[in-house]
């Protein structure tokens, strides 16, 4: 089934609990392609993208060991919309190409792409189904402040750069409510996993159709 696995995207706003849900799917044996990890790969030392970033933003965003200073870069791009767009235009095509390669290599019944910007980046076009991990905005803010130790102002800027909760849920084929306990989230993940496996088992030739 190489290249023909059902491709499922998992997304959600910052602080929604995407990673928790993704880890649960991975624990059930689902291959996971992590867009954030690939985004880190394409800016590692020696990669052409890192050289272009240094030329554009200056050495202030490069650490003494030659690695990208992610915090410094994040502050720059979220302070100026045009800078964020420049960075996206550089990185998104590189990231998407590696994502395509890894999704196509899967031999599992279905493979999962985990991406915080699944919809915003156009990566939604790389998958057949979309799962959204959903929580209210206040919960997003509180969780992010606790987890990332950033200012409320920066959290608001990150939220503003992502698509709205309404738009995200509108694009979803499946919603996972993460406003409660991890146990409740796990129950939903396990139920959805069974649905997806059952569907692919029943209709392997139509795995890209609606579940």
Description:
Pathway: Cofactor biosynthesis; coenzyme A biosynthesis; CoA from (R)-pantothenate: step 5/5. Keywords: ATP-binding, Coenzyme A biosynthesis, Cytoplasm, Kinase, Nucleotide-binding, Transferase. The protein is an alpha/beta fold. The protein has a single domain (6-206), classed as Rossmann fold. Helices cover 52% and strands 11% of the residues. The chain contains 9 helices and 5 strands, in the order βαβααααββαααβα. The protein has helices at residues 18-27, 35-41, 48-57, 70-79, 81-104, 137-148, 152-161, 165-170, 182-202; strands spanning 6-11, 32-34, 110-114, 129-134, 174-177. It has a 5-stranded parallel beta sheet, with helices on both faces. Helix 1 (18-27) packs across helix 9 (182-202) and helix 4 (70-79) packs across helix 5 (81-104). The radius of gyration is 18 Å and the shape is globular. The two termini are 19 Å apart. The mean pLDDT is 88.
Features:
211 residues; alpha/beta; Rossmann fold; 9 helices; 52% helix; 11% strand; globular
- CATH architecture assignment: 3-Layer(aba) Sandwich
Total count of domains: 1
Secondary-structure-based class equals: alpha/beta
Q: Which topology does CATH recognise? A: Rossmann fold
Q: Could you tell me the number of beta strands?
A: 5
| Elements, N to C (H/E) | EHEHHHHEEHHHEH
What share of the residues lie within helices?
40-55%
Mean pLDDT: 88
CATH superfamily: P-loop containing nucleotide triphosphate hydrolases
Shape: globular
Distance between the termini: 19 Å
By CATH reckoning, the class would read: Alpha Beta
């Amino acid at each position: 089934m190489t290249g023909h696995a059902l491709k499922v995207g998992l997304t959600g706003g910052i602080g929604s609990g995407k990673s928790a849900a993704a880890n649960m799917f991975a624990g059930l044996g689902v291959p996971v392609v992590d867009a954030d990890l690939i985004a880190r790969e394409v800016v590692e030392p020696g990669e052409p993208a890192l050289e272009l970033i240094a030329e554009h933003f200056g050495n202030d965003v490069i650490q003494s060991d030659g690695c990208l200073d992610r915090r410094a870069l994040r502050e720059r791009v979220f302070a100026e919309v045009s800078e964020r767009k420049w960075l996206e235009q550089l990185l998104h095509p590189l990231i998407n190409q590696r994502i395509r390669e890894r999704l196509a290599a899967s031999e599992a019944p279905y493979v999962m792409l985990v991406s915080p910007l699944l919809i915003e980046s156009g990566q939604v076009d790389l998958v057949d189904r979309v799962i959204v991990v959903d929580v209210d905005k206040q919960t997003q803010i509180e969780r992010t402040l606790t987890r990332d130790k950033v200012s409320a102002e920066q959290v608001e800027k990150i939220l503003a750069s992502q698509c709205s909760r309404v738009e995200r849920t509108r694009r979803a084929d499946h919603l996972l409510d993460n406003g409660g306990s991890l146990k409740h989230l796990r129950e939903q993940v396990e139920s959805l996993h069974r649905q997806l496996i059952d569907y692919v088992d029943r209709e392997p030739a139509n795995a890209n159709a609606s579940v």
